[in-house]
């Protein structure tokens, strides 16, 4: 049981480049989330999904897109990276009204 | 709307000191309440939870009681260790498809 995994663990991009972060969970959870955490800050919700094929905006969705084509995967895309998107990105999954399980994070630097 | 307010840090304690981190929540619905912990360089992990009023969650010597009358879920530990140094997040979730709502986090440093 791997839990929640994130790929990649680290990435450096140049301004304007694009990339996709992959989150995978093997717990058959309906709900999945993408957060960002800036240094010394709390979590901010980017997008989330309450089931396969559904997505919704969180607190800070601008500059990001997501897709949930399979129940176990939740992808976060940056179409044109900006330095303001330098952050640590966490994915999480959850059963209804229960504990959220977090991945180890992806550290992204945009130069 | 739904919110969680926790005490601002950082909190610095000596080893074996008593710890309290305050957390209050807005009284909408019947939320489940959680404490998460984030060790340096890692993701968040569940520390404890409580799903209804008067429930007490406990784990690793930490405790928190769901107090509906004061809308609080304060985290306590009787004797902290250096290994407890981390950031602690209080969180709530209501029914339906609404996401978990986190507090801003409280950084705890325990010195030997």
Question: Could you characterize what this model shows?
Answer:
- The complex is a heterodimer of chains A (111) and B (112).
- Chain A is mainly beta and 111 residues long.
- Helix content of chain A is 0%, strand content 51%.
- In chain A, strand 9 (87-94) and strand 10 form a beta hairpin.
- In chain B, a hairpin with a 5-residue loop joins strand 5 (32-38) and strand 6.
- The mean pLDDT of chain B is 93.
- The chains are: A mainly beta (111), B mainly beta (112).
- What kind of sheet is the major sheet of chain A? 7 strands, mixed
Low-confidence stretches of chain B: none
Number of strands of chain A: 11
Largest sheet of chain B: 6 strands, mixed
Order of helices and strands of chain A: EEEEEEEEEEE
What is the N-to-C succession of helices and strands of chain B? EEEEEEEEEEEE
User: Based on DSSP secondary structure assignment, what is the total number of beta strands of chain B?
Assistant: 12
Number of helices of chain A: 0
Q: Output the number of helix runs of chain B.
A: 0
Overall 3D form of chain A: globular
> Which structural category do the helix and sheet elements of chain A fall into?
mainly beta
Give start-end ranges of low-pLDDT stretches of chain A.
none
General shape of chain B: globular
Q: Which radius of gyration of chain A do the C-alpha atoms yield?
A: 13 Å
Class derived from helix and strand content of chain B: mainly beta
Taking the alpha carbons of the first and last residues of chain B, their distance comes to 41 Å
Provide the β-strand percentage band of chain A: over 45%
- Please compute the radius of gyration of chain B using only Cα atoms: 14 Å
What is the arithmetic mean of pLDDT of chain A? 94
Provide the helix percentage of chain A: under 10%
Largest interface: A-B, 22 and 21 residues
Gist of the model:
Chain A is mainly beta. Helices cover 0% and strands 51% of the residues of chain A.
